[in-house]
């Protein structure tokens, strides 16, 4: 890289590898390499003096006897220095000692990530790079009599050091200014490369600060910035600094709070505020940082965080558990504190239990057992970690059975968590207890159906609990942290500690066993029993166990030990019945499902549910999956509110009742694995709201009824493995399909028998989104027949197995380029594919992984958010590689490479480099194309998957069995002067050695305070482990003007 020629404060191009890749026992800060006769008595002495004045330790070689080769002591000094400064002068190349030092320095840069800086003292960097001019003549003289191998090593080292944009003496008015700049730069680089301990015991804090930094907008002096930090009790450091006084009017409350605020600001405990104008008068011209912790009423914000009362540039931070407080106060900039992930939660626990971030040997399983009980709430993790600290393995094992009781009775935990509960209204408290004792992780719509008669407005109640961070809703299910669940159950238990039959809910196995076994107890108070799979009743229960539970509404039995014959006396008020491995062959005739909202009988021995017709008007959810003896379903004529029906792997089921058509609100029907099912009733066409139909592995299925043309809302149809299915696709309404899986449908008709068929197919096919034709003999020939040119989302043509491949060499049919709305094209493992034609401009993702014969890309990529995956496509020609690398995208592209291409004007070994801008950006922002080249390291071959953390043998969304995969990101930290910000955080697919990842980064102009930008890259997985980066590169794209 050419040296800078215009600035008087040039900074060296550096390599700052992650601290984990560098030695920790540094002996020196700086190793200087120089030719003594040229510089020792001039510039060098001044540089040494300036560095030492800043407390920087240098290696001084005065006592070493010089020879032609450098000895072990010098090699050790080079390798033991954080920074190497190469001071290049006219006669530097006259010394073999200097040249061999330089070779070792470049080696340390490449292998250890050592930072290298260059100073060009009265020499031209071009002469050094090309060994020309007076410098070249000196070098030529030194090379006489040397081996060609030795000469080439020297040339390579000189070329490398000359490409570092260093300090050029000709660009400075005085040496004093240059030397001062050198010393400052060295000091800054030492600070940057020093391992940070700021967040050593604050697990996850660094990532939280990264997210919140942009909200803070530090350095802005124009306006008052107000941000809110939202999180539940126990997720951080909660203190109640300003208890609400018992005043009757709002004005008095505000005066009280303002006096508290002013007493802290002025350090005067006795200060009085006669009116509400005092704070404004005292602070209106001051730049203030104000943090209000654990605010629970908007009046606190009004009194102490009014932006009109403080000066420009002030920052007000408000932490709360109640989102309504922030909304009522007009705060739009909100950071939500989520619970830590499993890995971070384990680290928090281990720091408190073992004094380190991982379990001690022999304690791994025990640590995870505690984690399973505690959940991921930091407060509980810290308290429980401290509780177990210093215990032996035997003491841990002994303490575990009583851990639940210790958790809920721990004063520190209970006081903080119960404060939020106590602040609720009575109805909201009751709803909280229902969720804690029974409805955690239940579907919202089911909960609303179950509780609509007990609560005036269930949805509003759930909204209140969510706003107060007591529950959350994810993927349509209610989630409550484990410690809050245990708190709620303990509150119920404490109402009648010694009389469990008088409680509303029973959750403990012993209490359930006692109550079910007590024939004399009155149990009308019990409305819910939750008996989970970690529990077991040892003594047998009687057939009449439920006879006295006349008000029982919610029953979930997953544990073992309850007599199934007790179903003969079950309550007629049931809203939820979940009983796994239920062993009766049929419900008793007395069973009344009139109020039943959810019926869940997985793995049951049922052959049928009941005899005759029963009212099912309230039923919304029915799950009979894996009931392998089930042969028939009951009449569903009254199941007009049923929207979810799961019959998967009911392998004895012969048919569906014709009354299935009465389930007009049915949205999801899962029949996968119903291997005895031969056909569907024509009445299925009446289920006009059906959105998902899964018939995968219905091996006996031979036909689909023509009435399926009526299913105008069907978005997902899975027919994978239906090998006997002969249906013509023209008989299916494809108009609204987003996903169509025909994998393994080897008997599927792909020929059109008449012009009428063609017209009908044209009239029905439409906006299919996902086409899966994996494992079919002629997949491409089917495509125009199935979807025409209207694919919305993605097309999968991949080969099924590593050892097999489709015989397709080229996608020659121009039809594929006309699919105007195609978003994803998956071609992975098409091992004979040689070229790609022009593809649709709508394409968001192209996955050609393991297309090992692919050479040519006869296409272009125009969508600005496209992702390109060419992993293991080693035969790509140079034109194809150039296209991939240069494609503009806000996402990422990957292809094989041995080095960073020369089109990247700034290149460096390792994970960081410094870019010298011609001028500070004047527009809104500046864009750069960046790349990293992953290093060869088989031991750390990390698979990073965009999606959920997988496990061994997990099935992915395309049906493939995957190996264990992790979250992961390519991070790019950009430093300008004293400003540092994460400008890029890209999720990538899979990471392998020898591949180049390219992506774009954008830097806001307001964050750029100098013409030099330090780009520092990292490739990190969910375990906070880093993949080594071999090389990186940057070139500037443009300035964004508006």
UniProtKB/TrEMBL annotation:
SUPFAM superfamilies: L domain-like, P-loop containing nucleoside triphosphate hydrolases, Toll/Interleukin receptor TIR domain, Winged helix' DNA-binding domain. It comes from the Eukaryota. GO terms for biological process: defense response; signal transduction. GO terms for cellular component: membrane. InterPro entries: Apaf_helical (IPR042197), C-JID (IPR045344), Disease_R_plants (IPR044974), LRR_dom_sf (IPR032675), NB-ARC (IPR002182), P-loop_NTPase (IPR027417), SRCR (IPR001190), TIR_dom (IPR000157). Keywords: Hydrolase, Leucine-rich repeat, NAD, Plant defense, Repeat. Residues 26-190 form the TIR domain. PANTHER family: ADP-RIBOSYL CYCLASE_CYCLIC ADP-RIBOSE HYDROLASE, LEUCINE-RICH REPEAT-CONTAINING PROTEIN. This is ADP-ribosyl cyclase/cyclic ADP-ribose hydrolase. It comes from Raphanus sativus.
């Amino acid at each position: 890289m050419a040296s800078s020629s215009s600035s008087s404060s040039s900074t060296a191009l550096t390599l700052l590898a992650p601290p984990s890749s560098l030695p920790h026992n540094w002996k020196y800060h700086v190793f200087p390499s120089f030719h003594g006769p040229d510089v020792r008595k001039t510039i060098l002495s001044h540089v040494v003096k300036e560095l030492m004045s800043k407390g920087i330790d240098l290696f001084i070689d005065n006592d070493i006897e010089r020879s032609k080769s450098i000895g072990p002591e010098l090699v050790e000094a080079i390798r033991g220095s954080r920074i190497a400064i190469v001071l290049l002068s006219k006669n530097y190349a006259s010394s073999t000692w200097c040249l061999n030092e330089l070779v070792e320095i470049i080696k340390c840069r490449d292998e250890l990530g050592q930072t290298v800086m260059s100073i060009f003292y009265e020499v031209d960097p071009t002469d050094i790079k090309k060994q020309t001019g007076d410098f070249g003549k000196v070098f030529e003289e030194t090379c006489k009599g040397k081996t060609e191998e030795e000469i080439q090593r020297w040339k390579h080292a000189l070329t490398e050091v000359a490409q570092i944009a260093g300090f050029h003496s000709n660009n400075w008015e005085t040496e004093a200014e240059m030397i001062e700049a050198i010393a400052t730069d060295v000091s800054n680089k030492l600070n940057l490369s020093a391992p940070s301990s700021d967040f050593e015991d604050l697990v996850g804090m660094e990532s939280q600060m990264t997210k919140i930094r942009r909200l803070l907008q530090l350095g802005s002096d124009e306006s008052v910035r107000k941000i809110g930090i939202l999180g539940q009790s126990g997720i951080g450091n909660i203190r109640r600094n300003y208890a609400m006084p018992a005043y009757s009017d709002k004005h008095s409350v505000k005066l009280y709070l303002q006096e508290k605020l002013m007493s802290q600001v002025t350090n005067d405990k006795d200060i009085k505020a006669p009116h509400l104008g005092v704070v404004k008068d005292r602070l209106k011209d001051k730049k203030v940082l104000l943090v209000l912790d654990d605010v629970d009423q908007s009046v606190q914000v009004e009194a102490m965080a009014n932006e009109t009362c403080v000066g420009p540039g002030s920052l007000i931070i408000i932490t709360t558990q109640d989102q309504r407080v922030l909304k009522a106060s007009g705060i739009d900039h909100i950071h939500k504190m989520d619970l830590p992930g499993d890995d971070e939660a384990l680290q928090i626990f281990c720091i408190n239990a073992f004094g380190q971030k991982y379990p001690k040997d022999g304690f791994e399983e025990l640590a995870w057992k505690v984690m399973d009980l505690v959940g991921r709430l930091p407060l509980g993790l810290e308290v429980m970690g401290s509780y177990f600290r210093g215990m032996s393995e035997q003491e841990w094992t002994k303490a575990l059975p009583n851990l639940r009781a210790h958790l809920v009775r721990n004063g520190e935990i209970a006081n903080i968590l119960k404060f939020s509960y106590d602040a609720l209204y009575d109805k909201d408290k009751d709803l909280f207890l229902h969720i804690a004792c029974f409805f955690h992780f239940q579907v919202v719509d089911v909960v609303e159906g179950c509780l609509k008669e007990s609560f005036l407005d269930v949805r509003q109640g759930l909204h209140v609990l969510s706003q107060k961070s007591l529950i959350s809703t994810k993927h349509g299910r209610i989630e409550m942290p484990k410690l809050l669940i245990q708190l709620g159950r303990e509150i119920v238990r404490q109402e009648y500690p010694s009389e469990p039959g008088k409680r509303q809910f029973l959750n403990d196995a012993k209490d359930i066993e006692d109550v079910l076994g007590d024939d004399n107890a009155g149990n009308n108070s019990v409305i819910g029993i939750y008996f989970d799979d970690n529990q077991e009743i040892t003594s047998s229960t009687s057939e009449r166990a439920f006879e006295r539970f006349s008000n029982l509404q919610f029953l979930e039995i997953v544990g073992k030990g309850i007599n199934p014959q007790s179903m003969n006396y079950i309550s007629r008020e049931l809203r939820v019945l979940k009983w796994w491995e239920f062993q009766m062959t049929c419900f008793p005739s007395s069973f009344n499902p009139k109020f039943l909202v959810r019926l869940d009988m997985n793995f049951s021995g049922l052959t049928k549910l009941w005899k005759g017709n029963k009212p099912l008007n309230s039923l919304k959810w029915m799950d009979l999956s894996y009931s392998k003896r089930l042969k028939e379903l009951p009449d569903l004529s009254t199941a007009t509110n049923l929207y979810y029906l799961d019959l998967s792997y009911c392998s004895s089921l012969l048919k569906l009742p014709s009354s299935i058509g009465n389930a007009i609100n049915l949205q999801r029907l899962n029949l996968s694995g119903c291997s005895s099912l031969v056909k569907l009733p024509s009445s299925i066409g009446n289920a006009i709201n059906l959105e998902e139909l899964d018939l995968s592995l219905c091996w006996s299925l031979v036909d689909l009824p023509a009435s399926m043309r009526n299913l105008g809302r069907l978005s997902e149809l899975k027919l994978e493995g239906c090998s006997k299915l002969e249906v013509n696709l023209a008989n299916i309404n494809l108009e609204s399909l987003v996903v169509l899986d025909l994998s393994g449908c080897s008997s599927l008709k792909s020929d059109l028998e008449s012009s009428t068929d063609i017209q009908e197919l044209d009239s029905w096919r439409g906006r299919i989104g996902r086409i899966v034709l994996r494992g079919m003999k002629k997949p491409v020939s089917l495509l125009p027949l199935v979807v025409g040119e209207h694919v919305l989302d993605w097309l999968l043509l991949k080969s099924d197995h590593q050892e097999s491949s489709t015989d397709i060499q080229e996608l020659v049919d121009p039809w594929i380029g006309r699919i105007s709305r195609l978003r994803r094209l998956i071609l992975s493992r098409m091992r004979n594919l040689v070229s790609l034609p022009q593809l649709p401009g709508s394409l968001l993702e192209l996955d050609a992984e393991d297309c090992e014969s692919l050479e040519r890309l006869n296409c272009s990529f125009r969508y600005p958010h496209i992702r390109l995956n060419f992993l293991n496509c080693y035969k790509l020609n140079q034109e194809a590689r150039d296209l991939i690398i240069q494609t503009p995208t806000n996402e990422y592209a990957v292809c094989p490479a041995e080095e960073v291409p020369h089109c990247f004007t700034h290149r460096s070994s390792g994970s960081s480099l410094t870019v010298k801008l011609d001028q500070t950006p004047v527009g809104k922002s500046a864009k750069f194309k960046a790349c990293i080249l992953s290093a060869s390291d088989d031991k750390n071959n990390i698979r990073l998957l965009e999606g959920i953390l997988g496990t061994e043998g997990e099935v992915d969304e395309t049906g493939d069995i995957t190996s264990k995969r992790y979250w992961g990101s390519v991070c790019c930290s950009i430093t300008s002067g004293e400003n540092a910000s994460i400008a890029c955080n890209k999720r990538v697919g899979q990471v392998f050695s020898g591949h180049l990842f390219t992506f774009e980064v954008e830097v806001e102009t307001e964050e750029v305070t100098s013409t030099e930008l330090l780009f520092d890259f990292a490739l990190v997985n969910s375990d906070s482990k880093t993949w080594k980066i071999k090389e990186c590169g940057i070139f500037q794209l443009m300035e964004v003007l508006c």
